[in-house]
Amino acid sequence: MSSYSFLDKKQIRFHSQRAKKLRQEDKYTVKSVDFLLRWAEKEMIERLKDIRKEIRSCALLSLDPSEDFLRTLEERKTKYDIFPDLSLSDEETFSLPDNHYDAIISFFELHKINDLPGWLIQIRRTLKEDGFFMACLAGETTLFQLRQSLLAAEMNISGGASPRIMPFISKQQMAALMQRAGFSLPVVDSENVTATYESIFTLMKDLRLMGETSALKERVKTFTSPRLFFEASEIYAQRFAEQDGRLPATFDITFVIGWAPSETQQKPLPRGSGQVHLGDFLNGDK
User: Fold this and answer.
1) Are 57 and 246 in contact (CB under 8 A)?
2) Beta bridge partners of 79
């Protein structure tokens, strides 16, 4: 694994444990912060319907899979193992046997990995020949409203800015990483989910309950004045508020699928092997 790290894995574990504790308290409504995971599960179920091959074994990387999603696997007679915190270790070692699973399905854990190329390579090695990896993760424009508002507020107050929201990977970067990791036929797409909040403070509370507050190593670690958040709240409302005054928060959800290489998979024809010249079609229209 690479020695480079920009995420504080100890902080990520703390956020995860704190979120779990807070969600167990009666005053918090779990359903209100699970909407992204449940929506993503429904999307994944639809995408699994397009895969006709038999899936005998599956590794499920998810903190809290729903009964509906597990039932989908059971109806396909798929034996599954659940790994809720495999990505949280400092070593980021995918400690599973090579050539072991027909499928690996991941929910919202790829953006918590320091060495993403190395992580993807380990996943590909764990798949059987012609097995597939399917994942969803926070995409590039996730929480752009909050990011811009915090940046503008800090510039107004101090004349500078500090990283406060984790960077998210683009679809193009994700596709390139899948190819680099040795996956065949990678496909990457995304969909936006927009939730609305009463204020910036209710949004940040939900992020805390999701365990998704910043864990950057270069994050601000000193006390942040409330003035910054009140300033950011005003900017957020001025720039993005809807007609009813509620604040939209965009979650750009990236979906990815790739296959472990197999001789049975379709392959592009060699360059120059075409039998018909494109110009013949174009000239035929004249």
Assistant:
1) no
2) 57
CA atoms of 241 and 198, how far apart (whole Å): 10
- The pLDDT assigned to 270 comes to 63
Query: How far is residue 211 from each of residues 91, 131, 175, 208, 214, measured CA to CA in Å?
Result: 20, 31, 26, 5, 9
Strand partners, 103: 58, 132
Give the start-to-end residue ranges of the domains of the chain.
Answer: 9-284
Residue given tokens 């059987």 in the structure block: 128
pTM, to two decimals: 0.85
Phi-psi region of 272 (alpha: psi -120 to 50; beta: other; left: phi over 0): left
Task: Give the pLDDT confidence of 180-225 residue by residue, as tens digits.
Answer: 999 999 999 999 999 999 999 999 988 988 888 877 777 666 667 8
Closest by CA position to 170, among listed 127, 193, 145, 138: 138
pLDDT of residue 281: 59
Comparing CA positions, the residue from 96, 94, 106, 25 lying closest to residue 63 is 106
- Per-residue model confidence (pLDDT) at position 103: 97
In the three-class reduction of DSSP (H, G, I as helix; E, B as strand; rest coil), residue 222 is classed as: coil
pLDDT value, residue 274: 62
Topology of 9-284 in CATH?
Answer: Rossmann fold (3.40.50)
Residue 213 has a pLDDT of 80
User: What is the Cα–Cα distance from 143 to 195, expressed in whole angstroms?
Assistant: 10
